[in-house]
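Q: I'm a student working through a structural biology exercise. My instructor gave each of us a protein and asked us to get a predicted structure, then write a short paragraph describing it. Mine is Malonyl-[acyl-carrier protein] O-methyltransferase. I'm not confident about reading structure output yet, so if you can add a plain explanation after the tokens, that would really help. Here is the sequence I was given:
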Amino acid sequence: MIEPLDAPSALPDKRQVAASFSRAAGSYDAVADLQRRVGDALLRRLPDDLLTQRWVDLGSGTGHFSRLLANRFPAGEGWAMDIAEGMLRHARPLGGAQHFVVGDAECLPLRDASADLIFSSLALQWCGDFQAVLREAGRVLRPGGVLAFSSLCSGTLQELRDSWQAVDGFAHVNRFRSLDEYRQRCGASGLRLEQLEVVPEVLHFAELRALTHELKALGAHNLNPGRPDGLTGRARARALVEAYERLRTPRGLPATYQVVYGVLRRDF
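A: Happy to help. First, here is the predicted structure for Malonyl-[acyl-carrier protein] O-methyltransferase. I'll explain a few features afterward.
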């Protein structure tokens, strides 16, 4: 039996997610190397036979991949959609899409059978009800349409999680679904699953402060329910650094992201 993460208390409140990423709009691109690499890998996974009159960049952020999608599908009508209004304000002057819309992946503001591609890179891990995301994708896609997503699964930032466990019992690191749960949800979606795989991405940092700064600049710092209130005390901060230092390699302090790639198609 898979223990679902799709529970009301298991993931951050959407308003907190939207506010956090809105605040990060100005700093996001400067520290988004991993996000660029993952999104590029997702673009390479798009089916060669995909014909796109209308595409949706779901969780479009600063619009980097909206602009790449516009170049790839120059005849297509583009919709950049994000739950964070601040990201859309940042992206709109840079172009790429014809429409910039505040939208929730679990309740898309789009008509039935109105899109040929829903592209979503490193956004759906923040959705509490992944089954609803898939149901909405199936509703919005035209026959032959594709949902291509990248997300994060359990084991992401495990080094940071383990180091905090050596310090206290609080939830300091965001939780993510297991690969089994992604597989189960995709299999039950009514969409044809064409690809689903996990690719670990390991980043290295000279010091722990560089990792935590990057997470904050991305808007992806700890948003868990159950996180400790207030500032981290100096003694706990020192203990965390000491615990993480035990994991140091010749390349620096490792931070592993377990990246899930999925491609699903609506057959009818």
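A: Here are two points you could use in your paragraph. DSSP finds ten helices and seven strands in the chain. The two ends are 31 Å apart (CA to CA). It's a good idea to check both against the output above yourself.
Q: Great, thank you!
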